[in-house]
Design a protein that fits this description.
heterodimer; A: 359 residues; mainly alpha; globular; B: alpha/beta; Rossmann fold; 3 domains; 32% helix
């Protein structure tokens, strides 16, 4: 038993080596990049650490930015359990944000309890986001359309529809230069976690990740999903409803992305506008891949990426680097990570025992 | 890759239309895969300017033999002689350089390219800039010397199957092959197309331009087009000679063997009970959308083993896929335990259906999941592996797996090892353990002992017979006729997607079955 446990621990370490390697390799590359820009890389990393985790203020800033990433990462990580590569998190987020604002504005005048309205907003956001990604799953299941392409293209369609609505029927006449919807009443805005300036959206993200982990690894539903993801032929042989599982899991992933949109509008922005299209959905893809699609591993990775984003301001102020510098690091990280995927399974802490291979 | 001796430019070789056919001899060829001997000291001689047929059941070693000749595999012992000289053939390019070409069962032309482009691009050395005018002239001149022509400027995708096959042959000849190996070349053709192409090749052989080694299992083709034949059975050359001296019955007996049927293991004499699995006028398509099962009806009763014989690719595997829910039928109906069956989990569970598909790692396992998890596919949503139907109990899964691993002697480092790290035989045992451990009322098994050693074979056969004795209805699909004769109560023979023969195993006649398997309608004896 101890033996088996040790083996599982080793397997886990082996699985996480490539992303760790990717992080260090990209840090080296990024160091070379800032050195070319005439800045001391050590100083950059020191400042990034300070900007991300150096003070209570920066930690809160980091957590604030990590909250939507937790949710948009799940939009990729959950369908990945079914062997699908979904990159439509941005679309789910935008659809969810719009649905949350629309339902919030519609229900705000009815005198309903605040919690009930917020709950309805979250539900509407999850339904909208879920519908977008579930549609990609449906296209794949019924028409054989590649879900990666369709989820990305659906994102563009959703963004176009979003702009159409925000600049059209739902536009607040008072918003002149930057079209936006009317603002949600302050009473509907999400509160802060006690003792912090971090909104409760972080809690939503943490809970959704935990839920995702339990669902995938500790329920019969998750087991069936992993069988489908690993080998659809074996799943059919076991009589599993492959199509239904694909639809449910893609809808769940989309729901996470949609909830991220609700959190953004109901905790930060207060209204739906083009500011909602900030790339959290795309950063979520990076988080999911770095976490090797494990919903639990999404949590630390989202904090790391949130920290990188949070430190951008400090780099700008102190070193005169452009704010977008950290995006370069993100980009390098993603490319290195994809390349390091080929290393998976090549690391062996111990030679495989002979008995496995024989006979 | 290490440098090969440079073959002369193809164009230069093509300009020798009169080059004589070459002969080929294989001496004492032995090929082992691990403990399994695929070829056991096989001798074979193809004289220049003849058609030699290589006959045998699936798994007899035909493909392994030609893959050794073509350089895909390295033989462990033995030699290949071409034109009387021993040659080392390390890879297919070396074979091409020696003038040996092969036409595969499946098309290898680039579908979107024209015949001309395919011919030119197929050469070992294509110049960086192609002078298409010159190439067209060269190919046209070459084509003029062939007994049949093809349109040069049509994408090969739009050619009919027979024309594609001709293009494949033309390509090999254009690449200056003087010895052509054909691997079941007519399996994708209609009988008319097959006759035409084999007839054309026959004429080229008679003109002394070519020698042909043809792999087939159709006696008709052997009788009509081959000069001599070698029969392989279980990796051994068991006989052969001039086709003129042999009858179909001789060849069938050589191919299938005339050992006495081994006494069925601990088989209880019992009358079959009620029908458990009924299939009526079932039709289904293969991956290419071609009909593969064309109206199969059968019923399997409790307490009997129904064997389905046939050469692979005659619809049996598609039939099993439909039963396993891996493929949708296009027509007909299936009933399981008297109830309409759509391969749902609840139906499989209610009527105790278990499946042992072929290639278990591809069909029945998730390679990266652990042995324990793979063993749980049938029962993961029921106690003791699940609580309340939704909460997975890892402990229950692991305990059940440890029990099965011990009981079925699965060799694995731990229940947590990914199942893909196990050897083929152990993957098979793991799947067998999973499928036979619960309540089994209907068992569908496809080549369940393929590639296993003798002990494992006897073990699995005993399990299947034991299931039958318990009253289980067994559908056993096998390409090994010995296995069917040993285990089955009744035998159906499938050919070209249809059931062409049904016979009780006790009165089964190997020759009749062999002829039916080869599509040779047996005269009533």
């Amino acid at each position: 038993m101890v033996e088996a446990g040790g083996r599982r621990f080793e397997a886990m370490i082996e699985a996480f080596l490539p992303p760790v390697f990717a992080v260090f390799f990209s840090m080296a590359l990024f160091g070379a990049f800032v050195a070319l820009a005439g800045v001391d890389p050590i100083e950059v990393y020191r400042l990034m650490a300070t900007g991300a985790f150096g003070s209570w203020f920066s930690v809160q800033n980091t957590l604030q930015r990590a909250a939507p990433l937790l949710l948009t990462a799940l939009c990729t990580a959950l369908p990945a359990q079914m062997g699908m590569v979904v990159i439509g998190g941005e679309g789910a987020l935008v659809a969810g944000g719009l649905a949350a604002v629309a339902s919030g504005l519609a229900l705000s005048g009815l005198g309903l309890p605040v919690l009930l309205v917020q709950f309805a907003m979250a539900l509407a956001a999850m339904a909208a986001g879920g519908a977008v990604i579930c549609f990609a799953g449906m296209l794949r299941q019924m028409r054989g359309v590649n879900e990666t392409i369709s989820s990305l293209l659906l994102t563009y369609i959703v963004i176009a529809v979003f702009k159409q609505i925000v600049e059209g029927v739902m536009r607040d006449p008072a918003s002149l230069n930057k079209p936006a919807t009317r603002a949600l009443p302050d009473s509907l805005m999400l509160g802060m976690l006690p003792g912090t300036d971090v909104h409760v959206g972080l809690l939503f993200g943490l809970l959704f990740c935990l839920f995702g982990y339990v669902l995938i690894y500790h329920t019969t539903f998750g087991f069936a999903a992993r069988v489908v993801g690993g080998n659809p032929r074996a799943a059919r042989l076991a009589g599993l409803p492959v199509g239904r599982l694909v639809l449910i899991v893609t809808a769940l992933g989309g729901a996470a992305g949609g909830l991220a949109g609700m959190v953004e509008v109901a905790a930060i922005q207060g209204r739906a506008s083009a500011a909602l299209i900030a790339g959290y959905g795309f950063s979520g893809i990076l988080v999911a891949f770095l976490a090797r699609q494990n919903p639990l591993a999404v949590i630390p990775v989202a904090f790391l990426l949130g920290g990188i984003a949070a430190s951008g301001g400090l780099l700008q102020r102190r070193l005169g680097l452009p704010d977008a510098t950290v995006l370069v690091l993100q980009g390098i990280l993603f490319v290195t990570l994809l390349a390091s995927e080929t290393l998976t399974g090549r690391f062996h802490l111990r030679r495989p025992t002979a008995e496995v291979k024989e006979a | 890759m290490k440098a090969e001796p440079e073959p002369a430019p193809a164009v230069a070789m093509v300009s020798r239309p009169g080059a004589p056919a070459s002969d080929l001899e294989v001496v004492g060829l032995t090929k082992r895969f691990g403990a399994f001997t695929a070829l056991d000291s096989v001798d074979l001689r193809v004289r220049a300017g003849t058609v030699h047929a290589l006959l045998g059941e699936n798994g007899a070693g035909k493909s392994t033999l030609v893959k050794c000749v073509m350089g895909f595999y390295r033989a462990d012992e033995g030699a290949v002689l071409i034109g009387g000289r021993e040659r080392t053939i390390d890879n297919p390019r070396a074979a091409h350089a020696l003038g040996i070409g092969m036409v595969y069962q499946h098309f290898t032309l680039v579908p979107s390219m024209t015949v001309l482009e395919n011919l030119v691009m197929g050469r070992a050395h294509v110049p960086p800039v192609i002078d298409w005018q010159a190439e067209r002239r060269a190919v046209s001149a070459f084509m003029a010397g062939m007994p049949f022509t093809l349109p040069l400027d049509v994408p090969t995708a739009s050619l009919a199957a027979g024309e594609k096959q001709k293009a494949e042959i033309i390509k090999q000849l254009y690449l200056s092959c003087r010895f052509l190996i054909l691997d079941e070349p007519t399996s994708v053709l209609t009988p008319e197309e097959a006759d035409e192409i084999l007839g054309l090749l026959r004429r080229m052989v008679e003109a002394g331009q070519l020698s042909v080694l043809i792999i087939t299992h159709k006696f008709r083709e052997v009788l009509a087009f081959a000069d001599s034949v070698t029969v392989l059975r279980r990796g051994r050359a068991v006989g052969g000679g001039r086709v003129a001296d042999l009858s179909v019955d001789d060849m069938a007996r050589l191919m299938i063997g005339d050992r006495e049927i081994a006494a069925p293991a601990a088989r209880k004499a019992q009358a079959p009970g009620e029908a458990r699995l009924e299939i009526d006028a079932l039709t289904a398509d293969d991956d290419h959308g071609e009909p593969a099962v064309r109206g199969v009806s059968l019923r399997v009763a409790s307490g009997e083993i129904l064997g389905i014989a046939g050469v692979s690719g005659n619809g049996q595997s598609v039939l099993v896929e439909v039963l396993a829910g891996q493929r949708r039928p296009t027509g007909g109906s299936m009933r399981l335990g008297g109830e309409d069956y759509q391969a749902r989990r609840s139906q499989m569970l209610r009527h105790g259906l278990s499946l042992l598909p072929e290639e278990p790692l591809r069909n029945a396992c998730v390679g990266r999941m652990s042995v324990a998890e793979n063993m749980a596919f049938r029962a993961f949503d029921r106690p003791p592996m699940a609580r309340a139907g939704w909460w997975l109990r890892q402990a229950g899964i692991r305990r059940a797996a440890r029990d099965l691993i011990a009981r079925y002697r699965v060799k694995t480092s731990s229940p947590d090892a990914p199942i893909a790290t196990l050897s083929g035989g152990n993957v098979q045992r793991a799947v067998l353990a999973r499928e036979l451990s619960g309540r089994v009322d209907v068992l569908v098994a496809a080549n369940p002992v393929f590639g296993l050693d003798f002990a494992a074979v006897a073990d699995i056969h005993a399990q299947i017979v034991e299931a039958r004795n318990r009253g289980c209805a067994v559908l056993l699909v096998s390409e090994d006729l010995d296995e069917l004769l040993e285990l089955a109560d009744r035998i159906l023979v499938m050919f070209d997607g249809r059931v062409v023969l049904e016979t009780p195993a006790s009165r089964a006649d190997r020759t009749t079955i062999g002829r039916a398997m080869a599509g040779h309608q047996a005269p009533v004896i």
